[in-house]
Amino acid sequence: xxxxxxxxxxxSGCYTAQGLVQQDPSVRVDVLDRxxxxxxxxxxxxxxxHEKIKSLQGSLRAVLEHERVRFLGGVRIGxxxxxxxxxxxxxxxxxxxxxxxxxxxxxxxxxxxxxxxWSATExxxxxxxxxxxxxxxxxxxxxxxxxxxxxNVAVDVTRMLARGAAELNPTDMPEAALAALAAxxxxxxxxxxxxxxxxxxxxxxxxxxxxxxxxxxxxxxPAELALDPACADPSALPAAQxxxxxxxxxWARTPPRGGSRRIHLRFFLRPVELLGAGGRVAAVRLERTAxxxxxxxxxxxxxxxxxxxxxxxxxxxxxxxxxxxxxxxATGTVPHRAGRVLREGVVAPGEYVAGWIKRGPTGVxxxxxxxxxxxxxxxxxxxxxxxxxxxxxxxLAALRAEGGEPVGWAGWQAIERAEARLxxxxxxxxxxxxxxxxxxxxxxxxxx
Length: 448
Known about the structure:
Elements: E1 3-7, H1 11-23, E2 28-32, H2 41-44, H3 51-54, H4 57-64, E3 69-72, H5 85-91, E4 94-97, E5 103-104, E6 117-119, H6 120-127, E7 144-148, H7 152-162, H8 165-168, H9 175-182, E8 188-192, H10 204-209, E9 216-220, H11 222-226, H12 229-232, H13 239-253, E10 261-266, E11 269-277, E12 280-291, E13 297-307, E14 310-313, E15 317-318, E16 336-337, E17 340-343, E18 346-353, H14 356-359, H15 368-386, H16 396-403, H17 409-425, H18 436-443
Parallel strand pairs: 1-2, 1-4, 2-3, 4-18, 6-14, 7-8, 7-14, 8-10, 9-10
Antiparallel strand pairs: 5-15, 11-12, 12-13, 16-17, 17-18
Helix pairs in contact: 1-15, 17-18
């Protein structure tokens, strides 16, 4: 019997587990996660108002409830407090690391460390109730915000800043974040990209949602669209970019309706400094850029300043090293060959990767399926050799001895019930528990 550990219970981890049990009737999979809750970025990265995407949890649940799959949450791998990678490898015939990309890229400009300057990752973690999140008073005393980046995450945080209490109340957002955003006095949000509209990374569906926000104007400067040669005639663009440009051109022709909030989409501007006043960020200094003819941009030496008491950078995620695994700092990934981990260029038997730590933070949730499929194929091809190495009949006893009591599926179900009770007590739907203490306490109410 092939015993496999999958580290990470987000989409890539669940698709890996699914592929293994579907293709090998004898394999048993333990899905390990540092958090007591499954689903990874589907739970802690998808915006609370995107119920359709969050419903993907249902299909991931079906994987984790499979009779030959076991969820074990609260299991830390690597680091001073975690189970060493080498020890984990001894407990299973194979280990697949699906640990994602858990940090963000930096702007690398002066003033980035000022209070009021945050990564979009930190902001998303806060309103998504990630137990590691901090309440930094993101919107406290802020009236203007600058979001650096023009991808879907940038659109998400922009939309959440412009949402009112009536739209946020039905979501599973934690109560403290809901109260803070409902009381927010932010009226102007500027989403800034260093390149042109035709190169923006957001999807048209996400982009169009901005126009559906009540009491909110979406403002596009036609002069900035004109700086992008592709905007004059977008017919040669790929379909996704062409649709984006068409939406932006339509908005540029639409006069503001006089909403109490304004979202400004700005292009060909790159931050060069965050300016402070009173010990916190007060403005962003930006340089006007221009196309360089090679698909990039170049600086023009012309500058402008945008007032902002809140700055959120959304310029990409980045993988971080896991103690005991090789890591390529240039790509932020684990070196591999078709999912097989490479140590100094040589395949490491029984070690595999899938998801962002394998390919980098690219693609959408569905991209994880073919990525996991490749890794599963490699692992199952290696299985005849892997099963020759003896492993414990059940790794759970060793995990308990070395890392404490994991949170099993019953513990997660107890957390779900606690979140439903919390929501009912607040007159809302399900409301997420926002901290380690409450999650652990809820998990311990599971029947033994």
